[in-house]
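ok so for the tutorial part 2 we go from a plain amino acid sequence to predicted structure tokens. step 1 is just haveing the sequence, like this:
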Amino acid sequence: MKNKSKVPDYIKKLKQIWDQRDILIIEGEKSRLGIGNDLFNNSKSIKRIICPAENAFNVYDKIINQVKIFDKSFLILLALGPTSTVLAYDLYLLGYQAIDIGHIDIEYEWFLRKATKKIQISSKYVNEVPGNRYRIGKVKDKKYYEEIVSKILN
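step 2 — the prediction. this is what the tokens look like for a chain of 154 residues:
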């Protein structure tokens, strides 16, 4: 019998949230959620708004205004640190479904690598790994760049 890593039930359940949904990912500049893994492969479509890797609250109003061009049927997934919590609430008040998904992508990457401690992921910003969080490789995935609909940087 082969020793395969079984995807935990909580990951399967999490993926059901965006199953066959149009999703809008609002993330930090180097978060790159789902790139290099299959976390969002079951979504219907992905659009991205790229924001600053840190201190995204500085451009909060610009983010809100950019989201308003999207239909409310989009599921919005947020990965912007503390800004995500406030943003999820304000988007809810505007009639959107928004979820602060935090570091789920990095946690999934660590699971896939069978990491026993927090490690750097070469193409992603990992603020929990001291020293290496700014040495981030480039994304070679053309699809990722096609998904970006807006960049709101400082």
